[in-house]
UniProtKB/TrEMBL annotation:
It comes from Streptomyces levis. The keyword rRNA-binding does not apply. Residues 545-667 form the Helicase XPB/Ssl2 N-terminal domain. The keyword Nucleotide-binding applies. The lineage of its organism: Bacteria, Bacillati, Actinomycetota, Actinomycetes, Kitasatosporales. This is Helicase-associated domain-containing protein. Residues 768-830 form the WYL domain.
């Protein structure tokens, strides 16, 4: 028997089909419905239907739009005619059953092929109306357009159209609709139309179907109005009836049905080995960039804005320090934040700083550090591309600030990479073809092109994947495939490099990437696999540098961490790239001496780690700075300067640049200052001296940089895109509860015992409840009860009482499929089941 409602259609489904519905529309399971009637009601709510429609691909959505302008209910052949037209497009014919199955699975359509029904809310959203035009461009039917027309005028139209007059308006409208729906008679009618009248119809046929007319229409419009080919809907407004438009369209509801998704095309093809090496090089650069960012903030980073986030000025400073554009700097800052490497310190004078997790991250092998970054990037909902834009209140969006979360970001990132994984190895996609595919998979419903967030997310994903080394030269790398859980088999013979789409490469067979993001556990396994694939491609760290006579050192590759850390103190980075150039200056050498090193330590360090002899100018520089280092001593009074060379102190007092320090001589070898010790140190260094700080005991203070760390902080949690998809355990429990509640609500009751309204609990007095329970124990009959648990949640249950004593009834609960004990005072009422109840 055909279902009479969506609830009955759901009741006829098996657990697998119901599970597929709850997976595709997880909002229906939050909270778990009490029975299938409530599930059907929830599936028809506006918010849930809108969410489901937004997740349909273009052709499936076109199918739903066609059903919205078809009869209710509609036969499959009518729907096929609207989608495939008179020409019966083979691609549409082949794709329509799958689209219809998707709509049925998601409970947007129910009924057999002879009686297809679109859920009422979906029909209201998609059907044409003057306020909300249909995406099909169709207008109202003849019956809808003539609803307010006088019977006399309807009869005039019927007569002028060549139809016999009728005795009532209903039959007249039916006859007119039949004429417009009859291809042969309609063709004969239009053959009589003036050419300029047909031009009017052609302008309206694909929508919008409404037009404006004057009080005295032109002859070409009058001819159409007299025959009902245009019908008035309001003073000065006419509409093209749906039946007329469908005839002119050859039966098509859409101008261009799109049953097949657009292909993602390759813009260039490279050797996979070149792609992997390029991506690995960029992955190493990403690690170095994040380390440089955190090193720059190691002693305390920029201040946190009052509203949260990084100021524009601080972002510019960070961009200059990293030597990248500001949008790229915002990406690295947000990535470090998403990975839990930086956070606010939470102090009164709130600043950003590295977290304790950064120290652990630095000790990991490079491939594992990269894995941490890309795993955080894939799952993050914070979107760096929005930095610098405006929010809904026209406030500037700042890096690390609020308002950057976009829940669709993880799904779009994964989908873009999955599309890249579907291409042959080494193939770089045409970005526009990727965007076209994403628009087909999730079409924009009523949104402006500039509001295409998914498109912008896709563009950002392509550029960010290149920055991170997930892709190389635009193509997905081997470790990028592994990151998606789809490792590619490396071919034995690499083809020659090519650079254009016309150069064909053989397709290497690989396991396709999953279409949906991986679970956290699955992603952890995939990320570990990606790190293993990347590790052999990363350069080995070096233990040496090349010293040059111009006071520079060249690191021909990445350096081992102790060497890099020491060299970072002793010299300043002058340029980066394939080789890093360090420059030695008096200030950098003094920095090393301040950290506790001696001149002999520095000479020994350079001799041990240089493949070239230590240049004489560098040795002279170290000795000269060391000789002058500590001659001046600065301590706390407010501050003082002491020096055994009173001539040097006289030189300082005579220098005009010392005026701001407030110096005065206390003794031949001591100067007092109004500035604090730190300011005095900086002032003297700016004058070209090399002072050293000293303790209260007169010892030189070693000013080794102390890393500033925040308290332990966890990475920011991604903002979910709606309720999460239920796992198998939750799904099984939910299905069991729904089936149980449905059994209780639909089990037949004896006459006179049914509730007054569907879903109402039975109500009986305590004495009647007890007597009925005791009788059921003797007869072994099942009962229908209403039960309220300790949390106040009401439910209906079917039980078979076993024992009644002490204010409790022990019974086999058919809805839970187990023996349970129920307090009698929580049972609202009881009713006997019909004799034929299963």
């Amino acid at each position: 028997m055909a279902p009479r409602s969506l609830a009955e259609a759901l009741r006829a489904r098996g657990d697998a089909a119901l599970g597929a519905l709850l997976r595709s529309r997880p909002d229906l399971i939050t909270p778990v419905p009490t029975d299938l009637t409530q599930l059907a009601t929830r599936a028809g709510t506006r918010a849930s239907v809108v969410r489901a429609l937004e997740r349909l691909d273009r052709f499936t959505l076109q199918t739903a739009e066609a059903l919205a302008v078809a009869a209710d209910p509609a036969a499959y052949d009518e729907l096929l005619g609207l989608m495939a037209g008179d020409a019966a497009d083979p691609a549409v014919v082949a794709a329509l059953p799958h689209a219809l199955d998707t709509l049925r699975e998601q409970a947007l359509v129910w009924g057999g092929d002879d009686r297809l029904r679109l859920v009422r809310t979906a029909r209201e959203l998609l059907a044409p109306s003057p306020q909300h035009p249909s995406p099909t461009g169709l207008g109202p039917t003849v019956q809808e357009a003539t609803a307010g027309m006088s019977p006399g005028r309807i009869q005039e139209i019927v007569t002028t159209a060549g139809l016999p007059s009728t005795h009532d308006s209903v039959s007249a409208v039916t006859a007119l609709a039949g004429l417009f729906g009859d291809r042969r008679r309609m063709a004969a009618l239009l053959a009589q139309a003036p050419a300029d009248s047909l031009e009017v119809l052609e302008r309206l046929v694909w929508g919008p179907p409404y037009g404006q007319v004057t009080a005295d229409p032109a002859p070409r419009l009058r001819w159409l109005l007299d025959r009902g080919l245009l019908l008035p809907t309001a003073p000065g407004t006419v509409v093209l009836p749906r039946e007329v438009a469908l005839h002119l369209r050859r039966g098509l509801a859409h101008r261009a049905p799109e049953p097949v998704p657009p292909a993602v095309e390759a813009a260039a093809v490279h050797r996979p080995q070149v792609v992997d090496n390029t991506a690995a090089g960029q992955a190493y650069t990403a690690l170095a960039t994040v380390e440089e960012l955190l090193k720059d903030w190691d002693e305390g980073g920029p201040a946190v804005l009052r509203a949260g986030g990084l100021s524009v000025r601080d972002l510019k400073r960070t961009a200059v320090a990293l030597d990248v554009p500001e949008p790229v700097a915002a990406f690295w800052v947000e990535l470090a934040y998403a990975a839990g490497l930086i956070a606010s310190d939470g102090e009164a004078d709130e600043r950003y700083a590295a977290t304790p997790a950064y120290d652990e991250w630095r000790e990991q092998p490079p491939a594992e550090r990269w894995s941490v970054l890309v795993t955080a990037w894939l799952a993050a909902t914070r979107t760096a591309g929005l930095v610098g834009g405006r929010d809904a209140k026209d406030r500037t969006l700042s890096a690390l600030g609020p308002g950057l979360d976009r829940s669709a970001a993880p799904e779009v990132r994964h989908r873009v990479l999955a599309l890249l994984a579907a291409l042959p190895e080494g193939a770089a996609p045409d970005p526009e073809s990727v965007l076209a595919r994403l628009r087909w998979e999730r079409p924009l419903r009523g949104a402006r092109p500039e509001d295409d967030l998914r498109g912008r997310l896709a563009r950002w994903t392509l550029s960010e994947a290149e920055l991170l080394g997930v892709t190389g030269r635009g193509a997905l790398s081997a470790h990028g495939r592994a990151l998606l859980g789809a490792p590619a088999a490396v071919p034995k013979d690499r083809p020659a490099e090519s650079s254009g789409p016309g150069d064909k490469l053989p397709v290497h067979h690989h396991r396709p990437a999953p279409l949906t993001p991986l679970s956290p556990a699955e992603q952890a396994v995939a990320s570990a696999a990606a790190a293993r694939v990347l590790a052999p491609l990363l350069p080995e760290p070096l233990d040496h540098v090349l010293l040059q006579a111009d006071l520079t050192a060249v690191a021909p590759g990445p350096l081992e961490r102790p060497l890099a850390d020491m060299l970072g103190v002793l010299a300043d980075v002058e340029s980066k790239g394939g080789a890093t150039v360090y420059r030695f200056t008096p200030g950098s050498v003094r920095r090393a001496l301040d950290s506790g090193q001696t001149a002999s330590d520095l000479h020994a360090f350079l001799a041990a780690h240089s493949r070239t002899p230590v240049p004489q100018p560098l040795s002279y520089l170290i000795d000269d700075v060391a000789r002058r280092h500590g001659q001046l001593r600065v301590g706390a009074a407010s501050a003082y300067v002491r020096c055994d060379d009173d001539a040097m102190l006289g030189e300082i007092l005579a220098d005009k640049r010392a005026a701001g320090l407030g110096l005065r001589r206390l003794a031949p070898t001591v100067l007092a200052a109004q500035a604090d010790p730190a300011g005095l140190l900086e002032g003297l260094r700016a004058m070209g001296f090399a002072p050293a700080a000293e303790s209260a005991e007169g010892d030189v203070l070693i000013t080794r940089a102390l890393a500033r760390r925040t308290p332990p902080r966890s990475a920011p949690e991604p903002v979910p895109d709606g309720p999460p998809v239920p796992d198998d355990t939750l799904l099984a429990a939910a299905l069991r509860a729904i089936r149980a509640g449905d059994l209780a609500s639909t089990t037949p009751r004896k006459p006179g015992t049914a509730p007054a309204a569907d879903g109402e609990l039975p109500r009986t007095g305590s004495a009647e409840t007890l007597a009925t329970m005791q009788a059921a124990v003797l007869t072994g009959e099942a009962l229908w009860i209403g039960y309220v648990n300790a949390e106040g949640a009401a439910s209906q249950r079917v039980i078979a009482p076993i024992r009644v004593e002490g204010g409790f009834v022990t019974a086999y609960d058919h809805t839970a499929d187990e023996v349970r004990t129920f307090p009698l005072h929580r049972i609202t009422g009881v009713a006997e089941l019909a004799d034929d109840a299963g």
